[in-house]
Gamma-glutamylcyclotransferase
Amino acid sequence: MSPLHRGVCFLLSYMLLSSSSSRAAVEPEGSSGGASSNSSDYFLYFAYGSNLLRERLVLRNPSATFFTVGYLQNYTLQFGYWSNSLQAIGWHGGVASIQQRGAEEVWGVVWRMRRDNLQTLDDQEGVQEGAYMPLEVNVTTAEGDTLCRTYKMNHFHPYLPSPPYKQVVCLGARQNGLPLDYIHKLEAVETNGYKGPSILDDIEGIGENRRE
Ligand SMILES: *[C@@H]1O[C@H](CO)[C@@H](O)[C@H](O)[C@H]1NC(C)=O
Ligand SMILES: *[C@@H]1O[C@H](CO)[C@@H](O)[C@H](O)[C@H]1NC(C)=O
Ligand SMILES: CC(=O)N[C@H]1CO[C@H](CO)[C@@H](O)[C@@H]1O
């Protein structure tokens, strides 16, 4: 092989490698550039609460597709409400948030979403109203650490979740194959016993199962 040949081969494989790796590296987060590739059409979102359940998430964020499952190290799952606005929560009880705490884990689903659902997701999480703030986290997955967008409640007040909310979280955990130990922990969460209507009724097919 001539030096020129070798140079061309090197250049070609370099181009192939760099284009495939930029495609594979699903752009995880909103702010970081996008100058380099089209992968910025998508982002990764780590869900740990009601958005574990696909049917709930796609109500407002139709582009979501399952990417993988994983966990946040040194975080714990909590249920509560923000500020003074328990009323603002359609779930009639506390909803999930995360808090840094050593030696604990929060499991969840990493969803791949089109960038045009970034706004719908922020809206669902009440970012504008100050309910949740977005943050970037390192999620430990079978494929290694993955940077994802997630959300953490502002002004957290602890409060028990309603039965329908807890049910959506547990259904989502089972649907996407979170570890059984963790599912059992979720199933053991105490509720506030609320019995009226909820967002669960809007989730097609799931609401009926509840009444069987
Ligand atoms: C979690 O906490 C332990 C103990 O403080 C620390 O050694 C470890 O690096 C932490 N992991 C992450 C991902 O922050
Ligand atoms: C994620 O983890 C990597 C290495 O494990 C670290 O370099 C990086 O700063 C972390 N990013 C965040 C947002 O924590
Ligand atoms: C679909 C899409 O956004 N394609 C773009 C990918 O990036 C190249 C170069 O930046 C653009 O020319 C394409 O339009």
Notes: The chain has one domain: 40-210. Residues 73-74, 102 surround 2-acetamido-2-deoxy-beta-D-glucopyranose (ligand 1) (CB under 6 Å). Residues 3-24 form the longest helix (22 residues).
